[in-house]
Specification:
Layout lengths: L8 E5 H6 L1 H8 L11 H6 L5 E3 L8 E5 L3 H16 L2
C-alpha cells in the first residue's frame, strides 16, 4: 500500500484464512483508516464458497475469502519436481 498509494482488496486464504472468522475479524480490527471494514455477519456466514466478499457495504477495500486447493497444488509441484529431476 505504501508503494501503490491505495489498496484494492485484502485476501484471506488457506486453512486459517478460509475457516477462522475470528482470525479474519481480528486481522482487520483497526484498519478502517485504510478502507478495510468487514461485515461481521458476512464474515461469520462464509461456508466453503469459492470466493466470499466479507467487506462491509460501501467499504472502499474488498475483503475476500478465497478457497484454495493446497493439497492439489503441493501434489502438482511435487510431480513437476520429479519430472524435472528425471531429465
Amino acid at each position: 500500500m505504501a508503494v501503490l498509494g491505495h489498496l484494492d482488496a485484502i485476501v484471506f486464504t488457506g486453512g486459517i484464512g478460509e475457516h477462522a472468522s475470528t482470525i479474519r475479524e481480528r486481522a482487520c480490527e483497526g484498519l478502517e483508516h485504510l478502507g478495510i471494514a468487514i461485515d461481521l455477519s458476512k464474515n461469520e456466514a462464509v461456508q466453503g464458497d469459492l470466493v466470499a466478499d466479507i467487506a462491509r457495504d460501501g467499504s472502499p477495500v474488498r475483503a475476500l475469502v478465497v478457497h484454495t486447493e493446497e493439497g492439489r497444488e503441493i501434489a502438482m509441484q511435487t510431480v513437476c519436481t520429479i519430472h524435472q529431476a528425471g531429465k
